Amino acid sequence: MSYTITLLPSGHTFQAKGSQTIVEAAIDEGVHLPYGCRNGACGACKGKIIAGKVLFEDYQSSVISEDEIKNGMSLFCKAMPLENLTIEIKELNITNNIRPKIFPVRVESLEKLTHDVMLMKLKLPSTDKLQFVAGQYLEFLLKDGKRRAFSIASPSHESSLLEIHLRLIPGGEFTKYVFQEMKEKSILRVEGPFGNFFLRENSLKPMIFVAGGTGFAPIKGMIEESIKKGMQRPIKLYRGARVLEDLYMDEICQRWVDEFLHIKYIPVLSEPDKKDAWQGRVSLVHEAVLEDYANFKDYQLYCCGAPQMVEVAHQTFIAQGLPEDEFYSDAFTFAPIKTLQDTFKDVLMIDGF
Ligand SMILES: Cc1cc2nc3c(=O)[nH]c(=O)nc-3n(C[C@H](O)[C@H](O)[C@H](O)COP(=O)(O)OP(=O)(O)OC[C@H]3O[C@@H](n4cnc5c(N)ncnc54)[C@H](O)[C@@H]3O)c2cc1C
Ligand code: FES
């Protein structure tokens, strides 16, 4: 069974097969809809159902209200067509034709960078090359259909060895396994690349990068990619951490500054330890950015980290003049991904208007 999905205002159409969600079908068909987590937790894929019925899977109520749902809004990463649909959502102006695929990777190395951040290097089979753009993410495929998303921290010209920065989550199933049990040379299955968090190169605007914790991972890949491509647009990187130890790979950022005049680096600690004798900036990372700019109208802003940080940054930077379509982000959301069986326990039927 397949359904036709018509997009407004563009009038473009694509097909959704079987039990695909609208976002899954769009990715499959090379249609660029906005999305982030693919998990009903970030709100990036929100749009309106104009006509047709969907099955709306479980989602985080913090990102879509009951009123919005009553008014025909939906999260398209969690909405499965039940008939032909007409939906309203702004397509992204992206020209790449990268499709995700499932492939095996070998854990080449595991190196603890701090007490709770692991640098994991993943080797692809020698016959395989992954097409991606820096900033995108992979999903590890766990048993029982569970998935865990992690950003690729390396640039695309180093595609045979992928770098991941993985923060240990207390009580977290996958990250605990990585920290406590996983051995080098293990074979894992991943799917990717996913996501729309990558450099927009068709602009001359200076770029501000805001990274919280392991939100540095995709940003590192993007900055390395910009260097490799010889891009000269001014870059200002703000990195937020709680204490000095959390600023892993600080030396890489310092090296960029030493080697490239167009790159500036501002580390910001929120709760520096006395023993750190920290002389740098002290605040939340987005506050440090706000202190330095009166207006963001002439900038592009790339932001990645905890969902609360990304949300506050979005609101405050837009309020200070940043054009809505110049804010690019990945929020490290973590709603558990349910198996198909679980999923059908709590679903909503939504009718378009
Ligand atoms: C697009 C995307 C890219 C991501 N990239 C990265 C990355 O590069 N590096 C990285 O470290 N993380 C990243 N994350 C976050 C990562 O996917 C989650 O932290 C992951 O769920 C952890 O898996 P787990 O099995 O250890 O924890 P789970 O078993 O999924 O979680 C157990 C419980 O811990 C809590 N929890 C889980 N994750 C978090 C979190 N991040 N913060 C606060 N509480 C949490 C929740 O309450 C959850 O119920 C990314 C997330 C997304 C959506
Ligand atoms: S992509 Fe749909 S809510 Fe995040």
What would your notes on this structure say?
By secondary structure, this protein is of the alpha/beta class. It folds into 3 domains: 2-93 and 339-351, Beta-grasp domain (Ubiquitin-like (UB roll)), CATH 3.10.20.30; 101-194, Translation factors (Elongation Factor Tu (Ef-tu), domain 3), CATH 2.40.30; 207-322, Nucleotide-binding domain of ferredoxin-NADP reductase (FNR) module (Rossmann fold, 3-Layer(aba) Sandwich), CATH 3.40.50. The protein has helices at 22-28, 66-70, 173-180, 216-228, 250-259, 285-292, 307-319, 340-343; strands at residues 2-8, 13-17, 46-51, 53-56, 73-75, 79-81, 85-88, 101-114, 117-123, 137-141, 147-151, 161-167, 187-194, 207-212, 235-241, 263-269, 281-282, 300-305, 327-331, 348-351. It has a 6-stranded antiparallel β-sheet. It has a 6-stranded parallel β-sheet with strand order 17-16-15-14-18-19, sandwiched between helices. Strand 10 and strand 11 form a beta hairpin. Mean pLDDT is 93; it is low at 336-347. Bound molecules: flavin-adenine dinucleotide and FE2/S2 (inorganic) cluster. The site of flavin-adenine dinucleotide (FAD) has 24 residues, from strand 11, strand 12 and helix 3. The site of FE2/S2 (inorganic) cluster has 14 residues, from loops.
